[in-house]
Design a protein that fits this description.
Strand order of the largest sheet: 1-4-5-8
Largest sheet: 4 strands, mixed
Helix content: 40-55%
Number of helices: 11
Number of strands: 10
Structural class: alpha+beta
Oligomer: single chain
């Protein structure tokens, strides 16, 4: 693996960094306070190609690699993890799922708009009784011949109240277990599809998270993704890529907090000198830097494996497990470096600490990552 960035990678990284600093930063605290979805900023990210970064240009995407995606995610997440998770879900779960497994008709109808940001996508797997246990789907999709009828509830759906296209995982034949699960494309506004109240969250408060209700929603047969019974495999395949995105988000949150702590430590004085000159603070900075460097290598390794079309299930799980822990460790220490100022909103690190926690939960909890990793280790 060669981790040296190409000129194109550097250009993409710098574009994302500039956008984050000039567009995301000015209103990020206010959006967090108000739980305000960054609608206009999402449109701008679409125009920059961030929402379909890995999609083939023939479908309106940027045609870039996973390394480019990781670089964008890190830079956006340094400033606003609420904005970056919209990018992550749209790219890793929705666009990837449709491009890899959808029909040509599905790609032309949905992927082209998702890749340009004209539409926003949501991925609907989690339920009240089926979070980490994705096989226990209570949402049902009854085959009615030329269409399916979907009933059930989906929880904690990112972009749930703002999306136009929803990929919904549902049980068609309970007797078949995970082989009786299918994935469907549901459009906003379909009769019987209702969006529930917005969740009041600890972190990523600018991200729009909702419960969704499906009451006899008729979905055309042509909106099923893949063959009958493909839904569980579809969900697992897309989530492996999604873990790379969230690992990059965690890396960005940690990097952003570290940069703020380093800057503050060189400005704040105590006992007659900058606090960075005190070993207690200097060692914190050393630990933060070391963890971030290790996390970055793991995220890049997973991205390289995906781009090389190698199996990246283990690599993405390792990257997410470690990077999300790093995000928590580093943000907590960044608050500590700031002292009392770290506890107030204007210094940003308290928000980054709150945002960090979700990276250990969504796209598979840290405990689920350990299951994936341990099974891979045991199988050899």
């Amino acid at each position: 693996m060669n981790f040296n960035l190409t000129e194109e990678h550097i250009m993409i990284r710098d574009a994302a960094r500039d956008f984050a600093r000039t567009e995301l930063l000015p209103g990020v605290i206010e959006r967090d306070n108000k739980q305000e979805f960054p609608q206009e900023l999402v449109r701008k990210m679409g125009e920059l190609g961030f929402l379909g970064i890995m999609v083939d240009p023939k479908y309106g995407g940027s045609g870039m690699d996973t390394i480019s995606y990781v670089l964008i995610m890190e830079e956006l997440s340094k400033i606003d993890a609420s904005a970056s998770v919209i990018v992550s879900v749209n790219n890793s779960l929705v666009c990837y799922g449709l491009e890899a497994y959808g029909t040509e008709e599905q790609k032309q109808k949905y992927l082209t708009k998702l890749a340009t940001g004209e539409s926003v996508g949501a991925f609907c797997l989690s339920e009240p009784e089926a979070g980490s246990d994705a096989t226990s789907q209570r949402t049902t999709a009854i085959d009615m011949g030329d269409h399916y009828v979907i009933n059930g509830t989906k929880n904690w759906i990112t972009s749930g109240g703002r999306a136009d296209v929803y990929l919904v995982i549902a049980q068609t034949d309970k007797d078949k277990g995970h082989r009786g699960i299918n994935a469907f494309i549901v459009e906003r506004g379909m009769p019987g599809f209702d969006i529930g109240p917005k969740e009041d969250k600890l972190g990523i408060r600018g991200s729009d998270t909702h419960t969704l209700q499906f009451n006899d929603v008729k979905v055309p047969k042509e909106n099923r993704i893949g063959e009958d019974g493909f839904g569980f495999k579809f969900a697992m395949k897309t989530l492996s890529g999604g873990r790379i995105g969230i690992a990059a988000q965690a890396l960005g949150i940690a990097s952003g907090a570290y940069e703020l702590a380093l800057k503050y430590s060189k400005e704040r004085k105590a006992f007659g000198t900058e606090i960075s000159n005190h070993q207690a603070i200097a060692f914190k900075l050393a630990d933060m830097y070391t963890e971030i460097t290790a996390a970055r290598h793991l995220v890049m390794e997973a991205a390289c494996k995906k781009d090389a079309k190698e199996n990246y299930d283990m690599a993405s799980a390792v990257a997410k497990l470690f990077a999300s822990k790093t995000a928590m460790d580093v943000t907590v220490e960044a608050v500590q470096v700031h002292g009392g100022n770290g506890f107030v909103k204007e210094y940003h690190v308290e928000r980054l600490m709150r945002d960090a926690k979700i990276t250990q939960i969504y796209e598979g909890t840290s405990e689920i990552q350990k299951i994936v990793i341990s099974r891979g280790v045991i199988r050899g």
